[in-house]
Design a protein that fits this description.
With 320 residues, the chain is of the alpha/beta class. It is built from 12 helices and 12 strands. The structure holds adenosine monophosphate and manganese (II) ion (2 copies).
């Protein structure tokens, strides 16, 4: 039994916090809801869930999402903090303090750049998603997997494989999905929540950003910019940029696509995708990371400066 230590720690902890990265995606929030449910179902313990940043509407259907808190008391000391889908501690933003104060920590993730910052680390770079890693743990430990927990895991796997399309869509992804279908999840229902409840403004905003895309290096690089005022103009939310960079990657000539998003006048978030190049390596130049074909980082400069630097880094590292 590989994960006995993990079970012991959960059993021996009274105050447990489950948290993921800022502005959670489907893998992050699906995994958090599933872990909450599975700990409750198996150990009759109610954990705290903390959402850092914005929770997209698409994920408000997840069972037990109503237990999530968006604010926290920074004097709180948890017996155990479990991070899910957190590639680096900075991705917890200001909630990092809860992790640092905790008596024990567990880090479950699938980013190859994860530096194993927890007391116990289950980091599987070959897994499609944190959801897939969680299912392996549940199975190994013979924990009961309820329908509510399975819905979280399926959402995690579905979204991090881009709907079973990306290169991380392995045999084990389908085995995992099949197990979750057997438990009773409805693939079409979850698909609709994740992909077919976009607002009109969301689609118009994305269209606007695609329209102003720019290209470099014989169209091998495609990129666009998102200013705060762009999001405001469409009455948008943080998640309005979700999926945008994948549209730029889908262009036949694109190798590397990126989106530069204004956080404030001196901070830019880069989301990068590729078909062939290692973008985790490019993003690690700026202290970020992620996966080979999907990575991100934050650059401490305005959008124009960040774009210039990124284009230069790509030219040097990839096409140099
Ligand atoms: P994003 O472009 O934000 O969707 O991120 C793409 C992938 O890279 C996701 O798996 C993220 O978790 C990861 N990632 C994004 N930003 C960072 C960062 N600053 N450090 C490490 N990994 C990151
Ligand atoms: Mn994620
Ligand atoms: Mn993930």
């Amino acid at each position: 039994m590989k994960f006995n230590q993990l079970e012991e720690l959960i059993k021996n902890s009274k105050k447990i916090l489950i948290v993921s990265h800022i502005n959670p995606d489907g893998d992050a929030i699906g995994s958090v809801c599933s872990m909450y449910t599975t700990i409750y179902d198996n150990f009759k313990k109610k954990s705290d869930i903390l959402v850092v940043g914005h929770l997209p509407n698409s994920y408000k259907f997840l069972p037990n999402i109503d237990k999530a808190e968006f604010k926290f008391d920074d004097s709180m000391v948890y017996d155990l903090v479990i991070t899910l889908d957190v590639a680096a501690l900075d991705r917890l933003s200001n909630a990092k303090i809860l992790f640092e104060k905790a008596k024990a920590t567990i880090n479950i993730d699938h980013h190859k750049t994860n530096n194993e910052f927890g007391n116990i680390n289950v980091v599987k770079g070959s897994a499609s998603s944190t959801g897939e890693v969680l299912l392996e743990i549940y199975n190994e430990q013979n924990w009961k997997i309820s329908l509510d927990s399975a819905i979280g895991l399926y959402t995690a796997i579905l979204t991090d494989t881009g709907g079973f399309r990306y290169e991380n869509t392995s045999e084990n992804v389908f085995k995992s999905a099949a197990q979750l279908v057997k438990i009773g999840i409805n693939p079409n229902e979850i698909y609709k929540h994740c992909y077919e409840l976009k607002s009109k403004n969301f689609v118009m905003f994305q269209n606007y950003c695609i329209n102003k895309a720019e290209f470099a290096h014989n169209d091998k690089i495609a990129y666009s910019t998102v200013y705060k005022r762009d999001i405001e103009r469409f009455n948008g939310e943080e998640d309005f940029t979700d999926g945008l960079v994948e549209i730029l990657r889908a262009i036949e000539t694109t190798d590397i696509a990126f989106l530069a998003k204004e956080i404030d006048s001196k901070t830019t978030k880069i989301s990068m995708r590729s078909k062939k190049s290692d973008v985790a390596e490019i993003c690690s130049v700026y202290g970020g990371g992620g996966h080979t074909f999907a990575a991100g980082c934050t650059i401490k400069t305005n959008i124009e400066g960040a774009v210039k630097r990124m284009l230069k880094t790509i030219e040097e590292k990839i096409y140099g």
